[in-house]
C-alpha cells in the first residue's frame, strides 16, 4: 500500500513537471512594441535644427554624426611676438583707436649668416648701440642695417588670416587684442537598445527592428512598460523551472524511500 501511494505521488509530481515544461515550451516572450521613426545606415534626419547622419546601424547599435559650430578665441598680448604671414610680428595695441599693429620682427642671426659682406654676429658699442661690422671694417647700427619692416594694422571688425584661419578682431584694450572665429567640428552620438537620448529638446528611446533598423520613439513610458512585461515573463519562467526541479527532486526522493528493500 505504501508503494502504491508513493507511485501515485511520483506520477503526480511527474505530471506537474511535464505540465510546467509544456507551458514553458509554448510560452512566447512579449515584445516591446512602440511606434517611432525608423532609420537605417546612411539616413539623414534633422532634430532641433541639427542634421544627423546615421553612419552605422547594425547588430543592435547605431552611430550618428553631426556638425557642431563653436566660437574660438585667440589673444594677442600687447608687446608680444606672434606668428603672422609666415613670420614673426610684434604686437602694439591702441585701445583708444580700437586697433592694433603688427610690426615685422627679423631673425638677425640668420640675416647675418646669409650676408657674405658682414660678420655673422652683432657687436655692442661703448654707448650701448648694437651694430654690425662689414668685412671691409666699416660698421652700421643694426636698426639701419635691417630692411624696412612690414606693418599691418587692424581695427575692431576687421578680418585677419592667422594660423590658417580667418578670424575677426573682436576687441582691443591697452593690454591685448582679442580675435574670434567660428569653427565647425564633427561630433558623434551612439544609440543602444533602451538608451534615452535628448534630440532637439525631446526625449527619445532607442530600440531596434531586426538589428539593422533603429527606431526612435517618444513613447518612453510605453517602452518601460514593455520592459516590465518582459521582466514579469522571465519571473514566471523561472518559477516554472523551479517547479520542474522540485517535482523531479520530490519524485526521486519518494521513489528512493518507498522502494527501499525491507530488512529480513
What's the main sheet like?
A: 6 strands, antiparallel
Structural class: alpha+beta
Determine Rg (CA atoms, Å): 41 Å
Task: Point out poorly predicted stretches.
Answer: none
Please bin the fraction of helical residues.
25-40%
Beta strands, count: 17
Order of helices and strands: HEEEEEEEHEEEHEEEEEEEH
Strand order of the largest sheet: 2-3-4-14-13-12
User: What would the average pLDDT be, to the nearest integer?
Assistant: 84
* Straight-line N-to-C gap: 19 Å
Structure description:
The chain is 28% helix and 42% strand. By secondary structure, it is α+β, with helices and mostly antiparallel strands. The strands form four sheets. It has a six-stranded antiparallel sheet, with no helix packed on it. Strand 12 and strand 13 form a beta hairpin. Helix 1 runs antiparallel to helix 4. The chain is elongated. The model has no long low-confidence stretch (mean pLDDT 84).
Amino acid at each position: 500500500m505504501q508503494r502504491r501511494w508513493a507511485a501515485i505521488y511520483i506520477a503526480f509530481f511527474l505530471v506537474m513537471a511535464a505540465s510546467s515544461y509544456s507551458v514553458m515550451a509554448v510560452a512566447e516572450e512579449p515584445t516591446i512594441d512602440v511606434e517611432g521613426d525608423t532609420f537605417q545606415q546612411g539616413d539623414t534626419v534633422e532634430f532641433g535644427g541639427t542634421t544627423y547622419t546615421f553612419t552605422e546601424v547594425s547588430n543592435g547599435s547605431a552611430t550618428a554624426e553631426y556638425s557642431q559650430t563653436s566660437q574660438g578665441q585667440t589673444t594677442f598680448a600687447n608687446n608680444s611676438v606672434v606668428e603672422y604671414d609666415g613670420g614673426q610680428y610684434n604686437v602694439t595695441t591702441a585701445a583708444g583707436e580700437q586697433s592694433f599693429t603688427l610690426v615685422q620682427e627679423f631673425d638677425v642671426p640668420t640675416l647675418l649668416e646669409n650676408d657674405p659682406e658682414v660678420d655673422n654676429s652683432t657687436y655692442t658699442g661703448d654707448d650701448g648701440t648694437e651694430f654690425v661690422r662689414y668685412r671691409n671694417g666699416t660698421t652700421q647700427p643694426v636698426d639701419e642695417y635691417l630692411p624696412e619692416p612690414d606693418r599691418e594694422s587692424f581695427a575692431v571688425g576687421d578680418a585677419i588670416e592667422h594660423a590658417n584661419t580667418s578670424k575677426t578682431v573682436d576687441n582691443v584694450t591697452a593690454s591685448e587684442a582679442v580675435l574670434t572665429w567660428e569653427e565647425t567640428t564633427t561630433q558623434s552620438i551612439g544609440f543602444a537598445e533602451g538608451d534615452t537620448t535628448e534630440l532637439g529638446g525631446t526625449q527619445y528611446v532607442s530600440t531596434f527592428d531586426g538589428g539593422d533598423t533603429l527606431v526612435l520613439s517618444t513613447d518612453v513610458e510605453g517602452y518601460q512598460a514593455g520592459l516590465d512585461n518582459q521582466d514579469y515573463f522571465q519571473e514566471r519562467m523561472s518559477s516554472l523551472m523551479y517547479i520542474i526541479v522540485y517535482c523531479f527532486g520530490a519524485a526521486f526522493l519518494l521513489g528512493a524511500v518507498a522502494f527501499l528493500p525491507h530488512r529480513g
